[in-house]
Amino acid sequence: MTDLASVAGACGTVAVVAPLLLVFVLGAPALAGAPLGERATDRACRALIAVGLLSVVAVFVLMLTTGDRHVVVNLGNWVSIHHPTDEAAHYHFAVKFEFDRLSVPLALLSFALCGTIGAFAARYLHREPGYTRFFVLFAVFLTGMVTASLADTIETLFAGWELVGLSSVLLVAFFQERAAPSRNGLRVWVVYRVSDAALLVAAVALHHTAGEGDFDRVLGSAPWPHGRATLPEGQALVIGLLLVLAAAGKSALVPFSGWLPRAMEGPTPSSAVFYGALSVHLGVFLLLRISPLIAASVVLALVVIALGLATAVYAYLAGAVQTDIKSALSFASLAQVGIIVVEIGAGHWFPILWYVALTHLLGHACLRVLQFVRAPSLLRDYRELENAIGEQLPRAVGPLAAAPRGVRGRLYRFALERGHLDALLACLFVRPFVGLFRWLDRLDRRWAALLRGAEPEPKPETVRPPAPVQPEPAEHRT
């Protein structure tokens, strides 16, 4: 039994190291100025993703063989601080990975879908100038997903959470020669900052109240979903609300849904794997991970249900009026995410729904990846069919058309404006955030100029194009 446990631990370590090795294999030559060719990049992605996938499968088989419901890979305490007088104030930062009923399915999903999208992107981005850059960011995303899904401490989860957010934002702004992708990438980055700040504050609060951030101790030592939170109900509510806020930002739940259509500026492969399948479900995974906190607080469960219902209704209305296929699919995905969140909240009374939510997540992610990948060729097929028959194919009647006449106009306006959530995010978060950083940039430039003993750089002025030269009248020409 001990030998099997050691083998499972070794396979688990390989599963975590494989995507990190892919980042090094693709990134190191690119930084050295000699990036790998397209064929070598494709082979490296397929090989290392296959190694990671087989490692997770091996751990899963060993878990079934030994009857062990979870396997923990502990890489030790990377930070350990002992208080000289108060033993309860001891702080440690451990890097631990847990393979259980929740983490193993998501890790398998991450490797399988990233392998599928990697094979698709190798052909879709053929001869694209940013081919290597895409796959390096793609490898960073896979590393973050595997790290976050297998994390057994909130610090390890935060590391994977940040890698997923960074790679997602950079791929939204992938076509950086155009203004719109860069601007929309900035919008997504600001919302992610709010989400990450909530997760970081939750980690600090968890250490302050429980003394540690290990999930197997804070959320109970029993395998998921049978763990029982060791925190009192009040503390569970406060920390749970912070984690719900973090999940809302990452999964585009209301009121953070405005950034989701903007994220469609990235390439189709990244849109499929990020906002259709994996990244948009990472917040849902966090809610499933903290299900013991939801079970410990009725108020927290009601908040999760209300958030899911609001998101599902909003996405249904906004998706009904979309005119491009990627935005329509993104809102359809968001509607299903809202339903999954409702299932998680209702798990407070019916724990079987947590299994339903996990199954719903896995099936929905696979479906959306296939739809996003099929979307470009589907549009081409529709055009060819319309050209062949000589007329436009009939369009489906939207669900808002069945609303009463007095309500229909208001619903259409609400849907077309996407609930004004995008404007709300701009007013409350984006503009103050960007304005603060611009002020800090000006302050930094003045401070640097003062240290150099030079005059501060003048504020750049808007350069207006010269007025067009009017031709001289014919009578004045020589």
Plain-language structure description:
This protein has 478 residues and is mainly alpha-helical. It has a domain at 72-98 and 145-379. It is built from 16 helices and 2 strands. A two-stranded antiparallel ribbon has the order 1-2. Helix 1 runs antiparallel to helix 2 (38-66). The chain is globular. It starts with a helix and ends in a 26-residue tail after the last helix. The model is unreliable at 472-478 (pLDDT under 50).
SSE-based structural type? mainly alpha
User: What proportion of the residues form beta strands (DSSP E)?
Assistant: under 5%
Reported for the largest beta sheet, the result is: 2 strands, antiparallel
Low-pLDDT residue intervals, each spanning 5 or more residues: 472-478
Termini gap = 103 Å
Helical residue percent band = 55-70%
Average predicted local confidence, pLDDT:
86
Overall, the morphology is globular
Number of strands: 2
Oligomer: single chain
| Rg computed from alpha carbons, rounded to a whole number of angstroms | 25 Å
Number of DSSP helical runs: 16
Widest sheet: strand ordering: 1-2
Helix/strand order, N-terminal first: HHEEHHHHHHHHHHHHHH
Short note summarizing the structure:
The protein has 478 residues and is mainly α. Helices cover 68% and strands 4% of the residues. It has a domain at 72-98 and 145-379.
